[in-house]
Amino acid sequence: MSNDKIALIVGASGIVGSNLATELLATNWTVYGLARRPPQHLPGLRPVAANLLEPTSLETALADVHPTHVFITTWMRQDTEAENIRVNSALVRNILTALSPKGTVQHVALVTGLKHYLGPFEAYAKGGTLPPTPFREELPRLDIENFYYAQEDEVYAAAERDGFTWSIHRPHTIIGKAVGNLMNMGTTLAVYASICKETGQPFQWPGSEAQWNGLSDVTDARIIAKQLAWAATTEAAHNEAFNIVNGDYFRWSWLWPRLAAWFGVEATGFDGTVHSLEAQMADDTDRWREMAARYQLVEPELNNLASPWHTDLDLGRPLEVMTDMSKSRKLGFLVYQPTEESFFDLFAQLRTDRIIP
């Protein structure tokens, strides 16, 4: 190999994994990208096709891969939290078990998220006593089953067995380009705004009053990529969990009209009622196909671009949510990204790539 930093990105086709691959390739890593359908368009990325839930498939696919650093950036959504725990702990366990005999892994990074503090989908930001904001990494786990906790425990157990260091990364809503991603607010809002412009309807705020008026933050996919690379190669960051957001706070009441203006549509704010985005977009599948044909867009299937169910979860929360970045800042991670520019950069990229008109 040309260098001693060999990355295996698990989930290389996703919003975090693809941006991480770009970051590492730009800084002279050898990068393998594992997914069922790994990306083929990134120059230098070495694709590895495998099913994370089939150990034999993994062992075969990884036979000639000897990574020094493993970045786990994927999960599989299930119908219940019990199934989320079973499936998503297995995918972490399977990948680390497959790599264990090689003895080359020095560090494993796991990407989870703020459901660590807010609870899983079945009990998301509901009931019990939620921790105060801004969320800090030292907060104890909630007294509820959570697949993020199960994934962490698999990493800890493998680290104890194999002697590697680890880092846990907890982003808020991730803003960045990825097609087919399960949780993609930026592209969802871009598609929604494009439909609003096409039909002449207003860009209606879909969420709660608390989210409209409260403070919030988000995570640019490029920022989490930089933190993942930093933690993997910074000794002081080993065996630690880190929040990761852009570094600024905003109110949606400030940002929403700015997003609307980028598309040239009328913004409508909170009017006393939650207007579910999933309900608003329920009948837009055929309309998007028509728009894709009219404007020669590359993706005619709405469900491959928009995840309104997840945007509803984020924007419908009954409390304001933001995180504290002091821990990684004190250790030297000082990267900052204005959130408004995160959205605008994404929108421009989607337009350039003919994903939106």
TrEMBL record:
Span of the signal peptide: none
The PRISE-like Rossmann-fold domain, residue ranges: 68-302
InterPro entries per UniProt: NAD(P)-bd_dom_sf, PRISE-like_Rossmann-fold
Gene3D superfamilies (UniProt xref): NAD(P)-binding Rossmann-like Domain
SUPFAM superfamilies in alphabetical order: NAD(P)-binding Rossmann-fold domains
Domain of life: Bacteria
The protein, known as: SDR family oxidoreductase
Organism annotation: Hymenobacter aerilatus
